[in-house]
Amino acid sequence: MLPPAIASQPGNMARQANATRVPRPAPGFDQGFLMTSPVRPTHTPVVTPGLSHASGHPVRVGISQCLLGEPVRYDGGHKHDRMITDGLGPYVEWVPVCPEVEAGFGVPREAMRLVGDVAAPRLITLRSKQDQTARMIRYTRQRSRDLRALNLAGYVFKKRSPSCGLRRVPVYTRDGHVLGTGTGMFAEAFQKTFPLIPVEDEGRLRDRDIRENFLERVFGYHRWQTCLLESPLTRGALVSFHTAHKYLILAHSQRHYRQLGSYVANAKRFTPRQLAHTYGRLFMEALAVRATRRKHVNVLQHLAGHFAHALSQTARRDLHDVIHDYQQGCMSLDAPVTLVRHYVRVLNIPYLQDQLYLAPYPRMHAPGHTGRQGHA
């Protein structure tokens, strides 16, 4: 019994079954699932790092240094966040940055805040009222050049900081009243200099869905940058990259999926520079769109359509049930993804084995991480 939605969708399991040839199962695997019900996954598997780490390029992520426990705040303290260091640390190589210390303000130092026009505030010391805006701007320009050389794949900022806050940073009047909210000076300059690099603050990363999406975007951007670094971008390289990310893109945005597919199909019309600029922008825009439970179910059904005809009736029913249970909110996304990944590996389907949707970032037993949830 197949998922009800499949029969009515273009590109359904029946059509894909006729169009897709499934190779013989890989030797050494139990082929009993072809005749009997498979064992449903009961735990999150540990998947070794794939395309991202295999390149040999480290996945570097900038971070406000105080979040790592370094005593760099104005009062000599820190804001160590174990959800960040323990939950995300195993995946990345941190690049710590403290704009206020590196700009020469020292520790301890007089506290500062944003003052004046919300759209273009000044950085003013709290007690002595010194304007440190020009000094911070000079530092920001130099540090941006340094960070460009490190090929960052993401950045975690300290929330509400006058230098590092991404959003809702208080902007005051000269006499100390809150005028509105804005963005920290260094964070704003960073986003203008690196518009495609995924950024978040530590507060929002406490939300599991936001944290998972951040990891997807970080590793997606890292793979894209690695693709550009290792060789000049050719149409063939772009097709390979897009093919591997096809279902990951679809899980986020059908609109971007269609746009990117059309762009790749017409790649010969563009120069390598145009290809890199436009595809990279659309790709990162796509990953920033929220993936919902409904979108995940659509992708899972498409994936299953490549091999369901090779399964026994009982196995197909079990696959349907797992996808349906996820659709109803009875289990996390990891359950159907793990089952689909199992069949893809055992049936030895190279096209699906290369799909980054099945492993968008390395799976690790990191504290605070329980696998892909797909709650939305």
Question: Could you explain the architecture of this structure?
Answer:
The protein has 376 residues and is α/β, with parallel strands linked by helices. The protein has 2 domains: 1-23 and 34-40 and 231-376, no CATH class; 51-206, no CATH class. The protein is 45% helix and 9% strand. The chain has 15 helices and 8 strands. The protein has helices spanning 4-8, 13-19, 51-54, 82-87, 99-102, 133-150, 185-193, 208-230, 235-252, 254-265, 272-288, 293-304, 313-327, 334-347, 350-353, and strands at residues 60-64, 93-97, 112-115, 122-125, 154-157, 169-172, 178-182, 199-201. A 4-stranded parallel sheet has the order 2-1-5-8. The protein has a 4-stranded mixed sheet with strand order 4-3-6-7, with no helix packed on it. Helix 8 (208-230) runs antiparallel to helix 11. The chain is elongated and about 75 Å long. The two termini are 27 Å apart.
First-to-last CA distance:
27 Å
Mean pLDDT: 86
Counted up, domains total 2
Q: Helices and strands: which structural class?
A: alpha/beta
For the biggest β-sheet, the strand order reads: 2-1-5-8
Strand content: 5-15%
Order of helices and strands: HHHEHEHEEHEEEHEHHHHHHHH
Helix content: 40-55%
Compact description:
The protein has 376 residues and is of the alpha/beta class. It is built from 15 helices and eight strands.
